Amino acid sequence: MHDLAIVGAGPVGATLALALADADLDVVVLDARAKGESLRGDRTLALSHGARLIFERLGVWGELSAAPGAVTPITAIDISQAGGFGTARLTAVENDLPALGYVVSYRALQAALDAAMVRTGVEVRHGKEVAAVGGTPAYAAIECAGDNGPPIHARLAAVADGTGAAVAGVPRRRHDYGQVAVVAKLWRTRPHDGVAFERFTPDGPLALLPQGDHYGLIWTAAPGRAEALLALDDATFLAQLERHFGPRVRGFTRVEARRAFPLALEYATATVGSRCVVLGNAAQTLHPVAGQGFNVGLRDAYELAQAIVDAPRDALGEPRMLARHARGRRTDRWAGIAFTHGLVNLFGNDLALFRWPRGLALTLLDALPPAKRAFTRAMLFGMR
Ligand SMILES: Cc1cc2nc3c(=O)[nH]c(=O)nc-3n(C[C@H](O)[C@H](O)[C@H](O)COP(=O)(O)OP(=O)(O)OC[C@H]3O[C@@H](n4cnc5c(N)ncnc54)[C@H](O)[C@@H]3O)c2cc1C
Description:
Elements: E1 2-7, H1 11-19, E2 27-31, E3 44-48, H2 49-57, H3 61-66, E4 71-74, E5 76-81, E6 87-91, E7 101-105, H4 106-119, E8 123-126, E9 130-136, E10 139-144, E11 152-159, E12 172-188, E13 195-201, E14 204-211, E15 214-221, H5 223-231, H6 234-245, E16 252-268, E17 272-273, E18 276-278, E19 284-285, H7 293-310, H8 319-347, H9 355-367, H10 369-381
Parallel strand pairs: 1-2, 1-11, 2-8, 5-13, 11-18
Antiparallel strand pairs: 3-7, 4-7, 5-6, 9-10, 10-11, 12-15, 12-16, 13-14, 14-15, 16-19, 17-18
Helix pairs in contact: 1-4, 1-7, 7-8, 9-10
Bound molecules: flavin-adenine dinucleotide.
Residues 7-13, 30-33, 43-46, 129-130, 160-162, 166, 183, 218, 261, 280-282, 288, 291, 293-294, 297 line the site of flavin-adenine dinucleotide (FAD).
């Protein structure tokens, strides 16, 4: 029997595996991907400064940041609302940090994590699609699609499959925002200087993340509008974007790789079950506003690794150990869910009634250094 089976070697599952690489434990990682493959299509990920610290400790950051253009530091975040007063600007300098966060490509990060798992001798079984995670109170039993042999047994199964679909019996809730994110690569006449923009518009939040020589665009819109945006020729799309963004950012010259995905909040109402724990997107899939989801998932992995290392081997996966871990993660996880959901509801609507309090909130945030520092700290390191 293995000590731990990790289902999914995406960024979150791989982080858990690497954080345990030096522990004296028998760990097996199962992923449906073929070796060397990444998920289809790339994604722009926003990593907080806290996420960088995690990757530094795991020995992944050096290789990742050495690749030209792979990591782009965010030096400032400019927050504003369309059709109302109030702006806030968070900067790395006023927080004595090299950067507020970093923009990386999902593919580049996955490649660096895969290489680190090979280097540190983590046992990853590729091409293993987990069909079910079940078991008894004494162990987890993991069945892979197409395997005729006996299930894989482990004291604990950690499910980081991105959806939680592999595990039965973990209740989930879903809130559909009725919105779609249109994402694209975007170029401007001027260099971005590391400045990210978050603009709240009547259609929903609009974000520009500096990445390499361009911006990653996230434009939330109603499904019909998103479909129309995807169908526009490049010049008309850029003209509509400039109009939508308003005077804060101008001079868009080129757009590439437009695509869209639906937005929903989905979360497990309990992250632990019998001999099993869910983490990362499998535990909570958040709206991309404020770039919180991935960072909460990384902290899930890092803190689970610490709980595992702290537990005696024969207590691994026992209800008390799992309950302690779930309690430890509760505040940060719910704060991430509530913060993201609250921002979408307060800032992502078209009610004129909300414009004044929104403007006031942004003005106060900008004018009150302690509030600004507390807000920035929560964005960078999460809530404990
Ligand atoms: C469409 C989409 C677009 C996104 N865009 C952005 C964005 O622009 N910016 C941003 O910051 N975040 C974005 N996110 C969120 C971000 O991708 C996640 O926060 C991050 O990928 C979570 O990592 P994870 O390891 O939990 O899950 P994933 O990245 O989904 O990894 C899951 C892993 O599990 C494996 N797996 C899946 N099912 C099984 C199975 N049954 N058996 C075995 N292995 C399995 C997969 O092969 C994969 O390697 C997006 C998410 C989605 C779904």
